[in-house]
Design a protein that fits this description.
The protein folds into two domains: 2-108, Alpha Horseshoe (Serine Threonine Protein Phosphatase 5, Tetratricopeptide repeat), CATH 1.25.40.20; 125-189. The chain has seven helices and six strands. It has helices spanning 2-21, 25-32, 36-44, 54-61, 64-73, 87-93, 97-108, and strands at residues 125-126, 133-136, 141-145, 148-152, 157-160, 166-167. The protein has a two-stranded parallel ribbon with strand order 1-6. Strands 2-5 form a two-stranded antiparallel sheet. β3 (141-145) and β4 (148-152) form a beta hairpin.
């Protein structure tokens, strides 16, 4: 039975993508509320023919709040379409200049070791140290960093950027994220 539910959810993704492409964001969001696995899968979906993602669609339609939500759960800000356009390029082309700047900033903090993973079971990480906010994990967290997974236990302190991506430092450090010299990357904790 669970397998059937998973198949239904996977089959649901292209339908939701079609709604996103048509600009029906309220319907898309309504389908994702309370469905974290489906939301995480959608955040990583690429349309096979164009390689456009849900984030490309939010950029096209100027949906900043939806873009923030997708980035928070793991959407790649740097993934190019088949025409080599990033979501920021699409936003800029459509005249959504503020959204383009926001997407560019999100992409800078997710380059290299912090690149978003295609695994919907993992949360994204970031290097936007100056945006830090202290958090406590309300559940076990699996955070992608440098091709591996950083496990954060329920109740543990960690730091997040403006998109709620976990700040992860050298060797997967997160409380606090540290540099190569073992010094904190969080300005207040240096």
């Amino acid at each position: 039975m669970v397998v059937d539910d998973e198949v239904v959810k996977v089959e649901e993704v292209p339908r939701l993508y079609g709604l996103a492409k048509a600009g029906h964001w309220m319907k898309v969001l309504a389908a994702l509320v309370g469905e974290p696995e489906l939301a995480a899968t959608c955040s990583r979906y690429k349309k096979p023919s164009s390689l456009w993602t849900f984030l490309h669609q939010t950029a096209y339609h100027g949906q900043e709040d939806v873009a923030r939500a997708l980035i928070r759960i793991g959407a790649s800000t740097t993934g190019p379409s088949s025409e080599r356009e990033t979501p920021a390029d699409v936003a800029n082309k459509q005249g959504h200049k503020e959204l383009a700047r926001l997407l560019q900033a999100a992409a800078r903090a997710a380059e290299g070791l912090w690149e978003a993973t295609s695994d919907p079971r993992c949360l994204p990480s970031s290097s936007a140290w100056d945006e830090w906010t202290e958090r406590r994990a309300s559940r076990e967290m699996r955070v992608a960093y440098g091709g591996s997974i950083v496990a954060i236990r329920c109740g543990a302190r960690y730091f997040a950027d403006a998109f709620e991506r976990t700040l992860v430092g050298w060797h997967g450090s997160y409380d606090p994220p540290s540099g190569m010299d073992d010094g904190s990357m969080i300005p207040m904790l240096r």
